[in-house]
Amino acid sequence: MLIRLVSVGTRMPDWVDAGFREYAKRLPRECALELREIEPGRRGKNADIARAIADEGQRMQSALTPSDHVVALDLSGGEWSTPQLAEALRRWLSQGRNVALLVGGPDGLAADCLRLSAERWRLSALTFPHPLVRLVVAEQIYRAWSLLHNHPYHR
Fold first, then answer.
1. Rounded Cα gap, residues 141 and 21, in angstroms
2. How far apart (Å, rounded) are the C-alpha atoms in residues 108 and 56?
3. Closest to 130 in 3D by CA, of 92, 112, 93, 103
4. H or E segment to which residue 69 belongs
5. What's residue 143's pLDDT?
6. 3-class DSSP state of 114
7. Contact between residue 143 and residue 82 where contact means Cβ atoms under 8 Å apart
8. Strands 69-79 and 99-103
9. Does domain 2-154 match CATH 3.40.1280.10?
């Protein structure tokens, strides 16, 4: 199975890229994690934010395949404990489909992306900077995998 983190934003700080790569390389091939960066929509003075979100949504959808199990990271989702994420990971692995985790831009995900999602996951009630979300998701996927395989990392 491939877990693809489809995330709006490019040109992240080196520490974000290094952290993501570190957790991704710890995962085995049967639970591979990769990042697909999506160019953000145009924002700035007098920008059409609705258009920016829609553009991001179109680019995100083009990064998906029809067979992907889509999970939207969104405030409307449920907060999962690590054991709950591990159970979701177990379920995803048993389905034999690739998983796409969608992370929107500063104004959230496009409505079309939310409609495509089979599940919604809320990382926290806290607001995180987008670079940190990538790192937290990668670490939590690795932690969930380690929990499923009785790896000592989870302790």
1. 13
2. 10
3. 103
4. strand 69-79
5. 97
6. helix
7. yes
8. parallel
9. yes
